[in-house]
Amino acid sequence: MFTAVLLIVYLASLAAGRAGVRPSWKIIEPVVMALILTISYWASTEVVLGRLVGILASSAASALIVTVVTYALGFIWKGGAHGQGRGWKPSDLRYALALAAGYLAGLIAKIRIPFNLAVQYELLILIMLVGMKVGGELRPDLIRSA
């Protein structure tokens, strides 16, 4: 049921974006940060610290595989490396800090909240904002060139 709601919200927000409603990344960023904080807080109340190392290792391995495969496919399809990435910036640490802050807050506070509802509402807001952003930037020529 929630998946259907997410899909409907996304499609409606794509239409809103096409109609000119385009949120700034300055609005989207706090929603992403809240989601990271909430999920890491929840994880600290549910995940035993000893299992955390295994979870982090498998997550890192998965991320590495996805990165390598994506890079390889882009290299093959585009015929080589043509562009320069923006590289790593110290401001990218804010996501790691949000993750650590949420986890530590959960370890210290031990306050139980209905995480499933909190995450669902945060995801709905995020999917709506991203849908409007994508809808505003989606053009037929972009789709054809992809």
Main β sheet profile: none
Computed structural class: mainly alpha
Strand content: under 5%
List low-confidence stretches.
none
What is the radius of gyration computed over CA atoms, rounded to a whole number of angstroms?
Answer: 18 Å
Could you tell me how far the N terminus lies from the C terminus, measured between alpha carbons in angstroms?
Answer: 32 Å
How many beta-strand segments?
0
Helix content: over 70%
- The global form is globular
Determine the number of helices (DSSP H or I, runs of at least 4 residues): 6
Q: State the order of secondary-structure elements, H for helix, E for strand.
A: HHHHHH
Q: Roughly what is the average pLDDT, rounded to an integer?
A: 80
Topology of this protein?
Elements lengths: L1 H17 L6 H22 L2 H30 L14 H17 L5 H23 L2 H6 L1
How would you describe this protein?
The protein has about 150 residues and is mostly helical. Among the domains are: about 50-80; about 90-135. Helix content is about 80%, strand content about 0%. The protein contains 6 helices and no strands. It has helices spanning about 1-20, 25-45, 50-80, 95-110, 115-135, 140-145. Helix 1 (about 1-20) runs parallel beside helix 5, helix 2 (about 25-45) packs parallel to helix 4 (about 95-110) and helix 2 (about 25-45) runs antiparallel to helix 5 (about 115-135). The longest helix is centred in the middle third of the chain and has 30 residues, at about 50-80. It is globular.
